[in-house]
Amino acid sequence: MAGLESDVKVGYETLNALIKNKAALHKFKEFIIAQGGNVDVVSNPKALPQAKIETKVICSEEGYIQKIDAAKLGYCAMRLGAGREYKGQEIDLSAGIMLKKRVGDRIEKGQRLCTIYANNEAKVKEVQSLLVDAIKIDNKQVPKTNLILGVVDHMALKLHKLINSYQKD
């Protein structure tokens, strides 16, 4: 997208080489330093703010993940403190939701659907049922969704087929 490579495959190979030789990691650390952040979080994620409450949301049925409502998940994360409801509201950097499954995945009754990270038990209770409601499960198998749907560059949207064709090679 930056025009450094003329071919998508060559671009991916270049990116993979930068990841392997740790040049990308060093550049990421430079970004953190430039923004006044703690570079230790790269090698020690425990240096990040940690939530006091970690609640596993367990699936009450078996089947396939049919749909995940991103708007509802975003609302839940905001209610936990991971986002703002109004301008000036403080953000809890330790709050959030970690999904364990994605659309198309099989899930069994009793398996973990997601994990809630928070510092307020009342907010955890508030979002638990909303989270379960945001994830639709049914016995019908559906195809897994692509993680990358498309690429936007200076010209236009390139269809996800470009990326998918590379990933299948």
From TrEMBL:
Pyrimidine nucleoside phosphorylase C-terminal domain spans which residues?
Answer: 64-138
What lineage does the source organism belong to?
Bacteria, Bacillati, Bacillota, Negativicutes, Selenomonadales
Family statement: Belongs to the thymidine/pyrimidine-nucleoside phosphorylase family.
Keyword line: Glycosyltransferase, Transferase
> SMART domains from the xrefs?
PYNP_C (SM00941)
Q: Report if keyword Transferase is assigned.
A: yes
Q: Which domain of life is it from?
A: Bacteria
Q: Which PANTHER family match?
A: THYMIDINE PHOSPHORYLASE
Q: What is this protein called?
A: Pyrimidine nucleoside phosphorylase C-terminal domain-containing protein
User: Does the record carry Signal as a key word?
Assistant: no
Gene3D superfamilies tied to this protein: Nucleoside phosphorylase/phosphoribosyltransferase catalytic domain, Pyrimidine nucleoside phosphorylase-like, C-terminal domain
Q: Which InterPro entries match?
A: Nuc_phospho_transferase, PYNP-like_C_sf, PYNP_C, Thymidine/pyrmidine_PPase
